[in-house]
Amino acid sequence: MSQPAAARYAAADWGTSSFRIWLIGETGEALGERRSAEGMTTAAKTGFSAVLETHLEAMGASATLPVVICGMAGARQGWVEAGYLDTPAALSDIVRHAVVVPDERRDIRILPGLAQRDAVRPDVMRGEETQLLGSVGALSGTRLVCMPGTHSKWVRVTDGKVERFSTFMSGELFDVVSRQSILSHAVADAGAFDGTHPAFVAAVAEAMANPAMATNLLFTVRSGQLLHGHGATEAKARLSGLMIGLEIAGATTMTADAQTPVSLVASGPLAGLYTQALTAAGLQSELVDADEAVRDGLAAAAKALWPA
Amino acid sequence: MSQPAAARYAAADWGTSSFRIWLIGETGEALGERRSAEGMTTAAKTGFSAVLETHLEAMGASATLPVVICGMAGARQGWVEAGYLDTPAALSDIVRHAVVVPDERRDIRILPGLAQRDAVRPDVMRGEETQLLGSVGALSGTRLVCMPGTHSKWVRVTDGKVERFSTFMSGELFDVVSRQSILSHAVADAGAFDGTHPAFVAAVAEAMANPAMATNLLFTVRSGQLLHGHGATEAKARLSGLMIGLEIAGATTMTADAQTPVSLVASGPLAGLYTQALTAAGLQSELVDADEAVRDGLAAAAKALWPA
């Protein structure tokens, strides 16, 4: 295969359990895309270089095409440790702390994560900083950025600088509680639901109104089924709403000003659920596609790394 | 084997995953005790009657010795469904709703659970009502009863009547998060700790002060290890303190009066952890051994069922 004539660099988002790569052209357009489950966990066994080169070859990339990477590939247990930039951190500084992967035939850079070295609320991110760079890095003013997922991040950004952020384990808790706890019986065989499901909307409101009762509200997913005959889809929508409502209750303590605009960086079903939940919480949000955000962030980094 | 001369009845606490039985003598003393892992889940496959008779025979019980049982043996998926007594419920009424197990050669009664058929906070218990009967059933005045465990119960009782109660999934969440989430790495190889561990005490206070941040505080168990080098024992003590602190934050919303006395019905390590956590929360508590409470509750039921 021959490399598309216009490819300037490749950009990869290398997470714990997923790998995505794009070939990017002269004007920033995606000339090709590949996705796989060869995340850090897999690649740490099979070899990061081999995984990357296989995908580049399949896309017809030249042997010297440079590559910019964000995410867990830069973790200690990843390919090459890229360290952390400490908060408060200007998003434009990320690229200056990129590390070069040694002994490779092409120029490969891995972007660092962000660390909040706070005594009480230590926190870390890897990958989301690139989404931030791509979504709100060039905006002025203050906004809260909500980035839902396995480990949701809420980030307070002012004039391109990350002031502070908080990780919430909502997605992972939803997953382990759905599969491993007594609630697994309640949500088994649940059908599809979206953010307009009444049980979801009610659960968001209940968790926000009384976050201290979180682990009791979780139990009502089961007791509601036992005593009120609630169905599995209703139970799952309720469980989802409780986790997201609890997260929003906590996250909104990051700003005393309810008028701070919220940017929701998400894709897939979570985009819809969080849009509805934020509305139910009385917050206006603007949706930014998470895939576009990470690609735009990698593009901004590439532009700084390899000026035309 | 011959039955101890003085045995008047047998009393069993038959939970989801555990079975305990005592032979009780004329003056209420325990003449023998057996414990096994043949809880409801196991007995539903091997046969409840067979499990019970095997243990009675091993203890030398006569063929006609009556048996009183509390717990999940009375659930729908148990031996014989014993239903629920609805709150508000006088603890002394439990025994009037006991069901007889049919077609057995001996007189076997299973005590009902309690149900709170509330639209917003539906809740159920099975087994704890018998501990309540044995611990606070005969006391006057109002108290909060804290019954820690896989599914902790907090119960408001006035003059022997259960007014309302709430189940918190603290124990099960601690378990699934410790074993199945990203925090499993942080707590692996943790040593023993007790309620005086500084990380436990601090975590109780943090969760109580900011329950809305619960799922963020959980993540700090990991980020504290990454950024501050916290050890596994510290991580596990922190995780435990966060779960218990969150529970206490919610449970204390059940009473507007911080002077309401708290009875802690617990045994084993949880008794120490909760005693410390309640003290840290500014609550005075009186410890009642959970094993004694259930045996005393079964004894009270037996006395009403089979008056001398």
Automatic annotation (TrEMBL), chains A, B:
Show the Pfam families listed in the entry: DGOK
Source organism superkingdom? Bacteria
An example Gene Ontology biological process: D-galactonate catabolic process
Q: Identify the InterPro entries for this entry.
A: DGOK, DGOK_C, DGOK_N
Select a single GO molecular function from the record's annotations and give it.
2-dehydro-3-deoxygalactonokinase activity
Q: What name does the UniProt record give this protein?
A: 2-dehydro-3-deoxygalactonokinase
What is the source species? Ferranicluibacter rubi
